Amino acid sequence: xxxxxxxxVENKPGVLTRISTLFAARGYNIDSLAVGETDDPTVxxxxxxxxxxxxxxxxxxKQLNKLIDVIKVSDFLxxxxxxxxxxxxxxxxxxxxxxxxxxxxDIFRAKIVDVSANTVIxxxxxxxxxxxxxxxxxKPFGIKEMARTGIIAMARGG
Amino acid sequence: xxxxxxxxVENKPGVLTRISTLFAARGYNIDSLAVGETDDPTVxxxxxxxxxxxxxxxxxxKQLNKLIDVIKVSDFLxxxxxxxxxxxxxxxxxxxxxxxxxxxxDIFRAKIVDVSANTVIxxxxxxxxxxxxxxxxxKPFGIKEMARTGIIAMARGG
Lengths: 158, 158
Known about the structure:
2 copies of one chain form a homodimer.
Chain A: E1 2-10, H1 15-25, E2 30-37, E3 43-51, H2 54-66, E4 70-75, E5 81-92, H3 95-107, E6 111-115, E7 119-126, H4 128-138, E8 143-148, E9 152-155
Antiparallel strand pairs in A: 1-3, 1-4, 2-3, 5-7, 5-8, 5-9, 6-7
Protein backbone atom coordinates (compact mmCIF):
# COMPACT_ATOMS: atom_id res chain seq x y z
CA UNK A 1 0.00 0.00 0.00
CA UNK A 2 1.16 3.52 -0.76
CA UNK A 3 1.10 6.32 1.78
CA UNK A 4 1.43 10.02 1.18
CA UNK A 5 3.28 11.99 3.84
CA UNK A 6 3.51 15.75 3.96
CA UNK A 7 6.48 17.21 5.86
CA UNK A 8 7.06 20.87 6.65
CA VAL A 9 10.80 21.49 7.05
CA GLU A 10 13.18 24.37 7.60
CA ASN A 11 14.48 25.50 4.21
CA LYS A 12 18.19 24.88 4.97
CA PRO A 13 20.98 23.06 3.14
CA GLY A 14 21.39 19.51 4.44
CA VAL A 15 17.74 18.91 5.38
CA LEU A 16 17.05 16.90 2.24
CA THR A 17 20.16 14.81 2.89
CA ARG A 18 19.10 14.03 6.46
CA ILE A 19 15.63 12.98 5.35
CA SER A 20 16.77 10.91 2.37
CA THR A 21 19.41 9.23 4.59
CA LEU A 22 16.70 8.30 7.07
CA PHE A 23 14.72 6.58 4.32
CA ALA A 24 17.74 4.88 2.72
CA ALA A 25 19.18 3.63 6.03
CA ARG A 26 15.92 1.91 6.91
CA GLY A 27 15.30 0.59 3.42
CA TYR A 28 12.02 2.46 3.00
CA ASN A 29 11.17 2.73 -0.65
CA ILE A 30 10.33 6.28 -1.79
CA ASP A 31 7.99 6.19 -4.80
CA SER A 32 8.01 9.91 -5.36
CA LEU A 33 9.22 13.05 -3.69
CA ALA A 34 8.28 16.65 -4.34
CA VAL A 35 9.94 19.56 -2.57
CA GLY A 36 8.46 22.97 -3.10
CA GLU A 37 8.35 26.40 -1.53
CA THR A 38 5.57 27.54 0.81
CA ASP A 39 4.34 31.09 1.34
CA ASP A 40 7.07 31.36 4.01
CA PRO A 41 10.50 31.39 2.29
CA THR A 42 12.17 29.84 5.36
CA VAL A 43 9.91 26.78 5.17
CA UNK A 44 9.59 24.10 2.47
CA UNK A 45 7.05 21.34 2.10
CA UNK A 46 8.13 17.83 1.12
CA UNK A 47 5.55 15.39 -0.08
CA UNK A 48 6.79 11.82 0.09
CA UNK A 49 5.01 8.74 -1.22
CA UNK A 50 6.23 5.61 0.52
CA UNK A 51 5.19 2.00 0.04
CA UNK A 52 4.49 -0.24 3.03
CA UNK A 53 1.91 -1.13 5.64
CA UNK A 54 0.55 1.10 8.41
CA UNK A 55 3.30 0.01 10.82
CA UNK A 56 5.94 1.28 8.38
CA UNK A 57 4.05 4.55 8.01
CA UNK A 58 4.00 5.02 11.78
CA UNK A 59 7.74 4.30 12.02
CA UNK A 60 8.54 6.75 9.25
CA UNK A 61 6.48 9.48 10.90
CA LYS A 62 8.12 8.86 14.28
CA GLN A 63 11.62 9.02 12.76
CA LEU A 64 10.81 12.17 10.80
CA ASN A 65 9.47 13.88 13.92
CA LYS A 66 12.83 13.29 15.62
CA LEU A 67 14.72 15.32 13.02
CA ILE A 68 15.54 18.81 14.21
CA ASP A 69 14.62 20.60 10.97
CA VAL A 70 11.22 18.95 10.72
CA ILE A 71 8.42 21.31 11.75
CA LYS A 72 5.36 19.14 11.13
CA VAL A 73 4.56 15.69 9.73
CA SER A 74 1.12 14.75 8.48
CA ASP A 75 -0.29 11.81 6.61
CA PHE A 76 -3.59 11.41 4.82
CA LEU A 77 -4.64 8.01 6.12
CA UNK A 78 -8.42 8.13 6.72
CA UNK A 79 -8.43 11.84 5.82
CA UNK A 80 -10.49 13.07 2.86
CA UNK A 81 -7.91 14.75 0.65
CA UNK A 82 -6.93 15.83 -2.85
CA UNK A 83 -3.89 14.24 -4.52
CA UNK A 84 -2.35 15.62 -7.69
CA UNK A 85 0.62 14.70 -9.84
CA UNK A 86 1.74 16.65 -12.91
CA UNK A 87 3.05 15.00 -16.05
CA UNK A 88 4.69 16.33 -19.22
CA UNK A 89 4.78 13.71 -21.94
CA UNK A 90 6.27 14.01 -25.43
CA UNK A 91 4.61 11.71 -27.94
CA UNK A 92 5.34 10.93 -31.60
CA UNK A 93 2.54 12.62 -33.54
CA UNK A 94 2.85 13.13 -37.28
CA UNK A 95 -0.12 14.38 -39.31
CA UNK A 96 -1.67 10.92 -39.69
CA UNK A 97 -2.27 10.43 -35.94
CA UNK A 98 -2.51 13.99 -34.65
CA UNK A 99 -6.30 14.02 -34.68
CA UNK A 100 -6.50 10.82 -32.72
CA UNK A 101 -4.12 12.22 -30.11
CA UNK A 102 -6.09 15.47 -29.87
CA UNK A 103 -9.19 13.40 -29.09
CA UNK A 104 -7.42 11.63 -26.23
CA UNK A 105 -6.14 14.97 -24.89
CA ASP A 106 -9.70 16.26 -25.00
CA ILE A 107 -11.20 13.28 -23.19
CA PHE A 108 -8.65 13.57 -20.39
CA ARG A 109 -9.00 17.37 -20.26
CA ALA A 110 -5.25 17.54 -20.76
CA LYS A 111 -3.45 20.32 -22.66
CA ILE A 112 -1.11 20.45 -25.63
CA VAL A 113 1.75 22.76 -24.63
CA ASP A 114 4.07 22.26 -27.62
CA VAL A 115 3.81 20.92 -31.14
CA SER A 116 6.40 20.15 -33.85
CA ALA A 117 6.15 18.34 -37.20
CA ASN A 118 6.52 14.94 -35.53
CA THR A 119 5.76 15.39 -31.84
CA VAL A 120 3.48 17.01 -29.29
CA ILE A 121 4.06 17.70 -25.60
CA UNK A 122 1.00 17.04 -23.45
CA UNK A 123 0.50 18.42 -19.94
CA UNK A 124 -1.94 16.88 -17.48
CA UNK A 125 -2.62 16.86 -13.74
CA UNK A 126 -4.52 14.15 -11.89
CA UNK A 127 -4.24 11.36 -9.39
CA UNK A 128 -2.06 8.32 -10.10
CA UNK A 129 -4.85 6.35 -11.80
CA UNK A 130 -5.74 9.10 -14.23
CA UNK A 131 -2.10 9.70 -15.15
CA UNK A 132 -1.49 5.98 -15.64
CA UNK A 133 -4.57 5.79 -17.87
CA UNK A 134 -3.25 8.64 -20.04
CA UNK A 135 0.17 6.97 -20.35
CA UNK A 136 -1.50 3.71 -21.38
CA UNK A 137 -3.53 5.46 -24.08
CA UNK A 138 -0.48 7.27 -25.49
CA LYS A 139 1.99 4.37 -25.39
CA PRO A 140 0.97 2.91 -28.77
CA PHE A 141 1.94 6.19 -30.51
CA GLY A 142 5.44 6.12 -29.06
CA ILE A 143 6.47 8.02 -25.93
CA LYS A 144 9.66 9.98 -26.56
CA GLU A 145 10.07 11.55 -23.14
CA MET A 146 8.20 11.85 -19.88
CA ALA A 147 8.63 13.93 -16.72
CA ARG A 148 6.51 13.75 -13.58
CA THR A 149 6.56 15.90 -10.48
CA GLY A 150 5.48 13.28 -8.00
CA ILE A 151 2.38 13.69 -5.85
CA ILE A 152 1.34 16.62 -3.70
CA ALA A 153 -1.67 16.36 -1.41
CA MET A 154 -4.00 18.50 0.68
CA ALA A 155 -6.78 17.68 3.16
CA ARG A 156 -10.25 18.67 1.97
CA GLY A 157 -12.43 21.14 3.85
CA GLY A 158 -11.63 24.07 6.13
CA UNK B 1 20.10 33.14 -11.81
CA UNK B 2 18.11 29.93 -11.58
CA UNK B 3 18.95 26.84 -13.62
CA UNK B 4 16.82 23.79 -14.22
CA UNK B 5 18.64 20.47 -14.42
CA UNK B 6 17.06 17.19 -15.46
CA UNK B 7 18.75 14.02 -14.21
CA UNK B 8 17.88 10.47 -15.22
CA VAL B 9 18.89 8.11 -12.41
CA GLU B 10 18.66 4.43 -11.54
CA ASN B 11 15.62 3.93 -9.32
CA LYS B 12 17.53 2.50 -6.32
CA PRO B 13 17.56 3.29 -2.60
CA GLY B 14 20.42 5.63 -1.75
CA VAL B 15 20.52 7.54 -5.03
CA LEU B 16 18.63 10.51 -3.63
CA THR B 17 20.96 10.59 -0.63
CA ARG B 18 24.07 10.63 -2.84
CA ILE B 19 22.70 13.44 -4.96
CA SER B 20 21.45 15.56 -2.07
CA THR B 21 24.79 15.03 -0.25
CA LEU B 22 26.62 16.29 -3.34
CA PHE B 23 24.56 19.50 -3.29
CA ALA B 24 24.79 20.01 0.48
CA ALA B 25 28.56 19.34 0.66
CA ARG B 26 29.26 22.03 -1.92
CA GLY B 27 26.74 24.48 -0.52
CA TYR B 28 24.66 24.58 -3.70
CA ASN B 29 21.22 25.87 -2.91
CA ILE B 30 18.38 23.68 -4.23
CA ASP B 31 15.27 25.78 -4.89
CA SER B 32 13.07 22.86 -5.80
CA LEU B 33 13.33 19.16 -6.48
CA ALA B 34 10.86 16.83 -8.11
CA VAL B 35 11.44 13.09 -8.37
CA GLY B 36 9.01 11.11 -10.47
CA GLU B 37 8.70 7.83 -12.31
CA THR B 38 9.44 7.47 -16.02
CA ASP B 39 7.95 4.92 -18.41
CA ASP B 40 10.78 2.59 -17.33
CA PRO B 41 10.20 1.51 -13.69
CA THR B 42 13.96 1.07 -13.12
CA VAL B 43 14.63 4.71 -14.01
CA UNK B 44 13.51 7.92 -12.25
CA UNK B 45 13.81 11.50 -13.40
CA UNK B 46 14.90 14.21 -10.97
CA UNK B 47 14.33 17.82 -11.86
CA UNK B 48 16.46 20.14 -9.77
CA UNK B 49 16.32 23.93 -9.75
CA UNK B 50 19.56 25.42 -8.50
CA UNK B 51 20.56 29.06 -8.04
CA UNK B 52 23.95 30.34 -9.24
CA UNK B 53 25.90 31.46 -12.30
CA UNK B 54 26.83 29.34 -15.32
CA UNK B 55 30.10 28.24 -13.71
CA UNK B 56 28.14 26.72 -10.82
CA UNK B 57 25.81 25.00 -13.26
CA UNK B 58 28.78 23.44 -15.08
CA UNK B 59 30.30 22.25 -11.80
CA UNK B 60 27.03 20.70 -10.68
CA UNK B 61 26.62 18.88 -13.99
CA LYS B 62 30.18 17.56 -13.88
CA GLN B 63 29.75 16.28 -10.31
CA LEU B 64 26.42 14.66 -11.13
CA ASN B 65 27.91 12.89 -14.14
CA LYS B 66 30.52 11.28 -11.86
CA LEU B 67 27.87 9.54 -9.75
CA ILE B 68 27.47 5.89 -10.67
CA ASP B 69 23.65 5.84 -10.60
CA VAL B 70 23.31 8.86 -12.87
CA ILE B 71 22.35 7.90 -16.42
CA LYS B 72 22.03 11.30 -18.06
CA VAL B 73 22.24 14.97 -17.05
CA SER B 74 20.73 17.73 -19.14
CA ASP B 75 20.13 21.40 -18.58
CA PHE B 76 17.93 23.84 -20.47
CA LEU B 77 20.33 26.75 -20.87
CA UNK B 78 19.79 28.21 -24.36
CA UNK B 79 17.30 25.41 -25.14
CA UNK B 80 13.68 26.26 -25.98
CA UNK B 81 11.71 24.38 -23.36
CA UNK B 82 8.51 24.11 -21.36
CA UNK B 83 8.64 24.54 -17.56
CA UNK B 84 5.72 23.67 -15.32
CA UNK B 85 5.11 23.72 -11.59
CA UNK B 86 1.89 22.54 -9.91
CA UNK B 87 0.34 24.27 -6.93
CA UNK B 88 -2.51 23.40 -4.58
CA UNK B 89 -3.58 26.36 -2.50
CA UNK B 90 -6.29 26.52 0.18
CA UNK B 91 -7.79 29.97 0.59
CA UNK B 92 -10.33 31.43 3.02
CA UNK B 93 -13.49 31.92 0.97
CA UNK B 94 -16.79 32.52 2.68
CA UNK B 95 -19.88 33.51 0.70
CA UNK B 96 -18.99 37.21 0.63
CA UNK B 97 -15.76 36.73 -1.38
CA UNK B 98 -16.39 33.48 -3.25
CA UNK B 99 -17.41 35.22 -6.47
CA UNK B 100 -14.32 37.37 -6.49
CA UNK B 101 -12.14 34.27 -6.03
CA UNK B 102 -13.97 32.43 -8.82
CA UNK B 103 -13.14 35.34 -11.14
CA UNK B 104 -9.44 35.09 -10.32
CA UNK B 105 -9.53 31.32 -10.86
CA ASP B 106 -11.15 31.93 -14.23
CA ILE B 107 -8.63 34.54 -15.35
CA PHE B 108 -5.71 32.23 -14.49
CA ARG B 109 -7.45 29.21 -16.04
CA ALA B 110 -6.99 27.50 -12.70
CA LYS B 111 -9.41 24.92 -11.22
CA ILE B 112 -11.38 24.66 -7.99
CA VAL B 113 -10.85 21.10 -6.71
CA ASP B 114 -12.54 21.36 -3.31
CA VAL B 115 -14.97 23.69 -1.58
CA SER B 116 -16.21 23.98 2.00
CA ALA B 117 -18.28 26.62 3.82
CA ASN B 118 -15.21 28.76 4.49
CA THR B 119 -12.49 27.60 2.09
CA VAL B 120 -11.69 26.51 -1.46
CA ILE B 121 -8.73 24.52 -2.77
CA UNK B 122 -7.40 25.84 -6.08
CA UNK B 123 -5.19 23.83 -8.45
CA UNK B 124 -3.04 25.47 -11.12
CA UNK B 125 -0.04 24.65 -13.30
CA UNK B 126 2.28 27.19 -14.88
CA UNK B 127 5.77 28.60 -14.83
CA UNK B 128 7.15 30.34 -11.75
CA UNK B 129 5.90 33.79 -12.75
CA UNK B 130 2.33 32.69 -13.31
CA UNK B 131 2.23 30.79 -10.03
CA UNK B 132 3.69 33.72 -8.13
CA UNK B 133 1.08 36.02 -9.71
CA UNK B 134 -1.74 33.71 -8.54
CA UNK B 135 -0.32 33.60 -5.01
CA UNK B 136 -0.12 37.41 -4.93
CA UNK B 137 -3.75 37.74 -6.04
CA UNK B 138 -4.97 35.24 -3.42
CA LYS B 139 -2.90 36.46 -0.46
CA PRO B 140 -5.35 39.21 0.59
CA PHE B 141 -8.09 36.59 1.14
CA GLY B 142 -5.90 34.56 3.49
CA ILE B 143 -3.87 31.53 2.41
CA LYS B 144 -4.48 28.62 4.78
CA GLU B 145 -2.21 26.06 3.15
CA MET B 146 -0.08 25.68 0.06
CA ALA B 147 1.74 22.77 -1.58
CA ARG B 148 3.92 22.93 -4.69
CA THR B 149 5.56 20.15 -6.65
CA GLY B 150 8.60 22.08 -7.84
CA ILE B 151 9.40 22.51 -11.52
CA ILE B 152 9.60 19.89 -14.23
CA ALA B 153 10.88 20.78 -17.69
CA MET B 154 11.02 19.42 -21.23
CA ALA B 155 12.77 20.63 -24.40
CA ARG B 156 10.40 21.78 -27.14
CA GLY B 157 10.29 20.17 -30.56
CA GLY B 158 11.07 16.64 -31.79
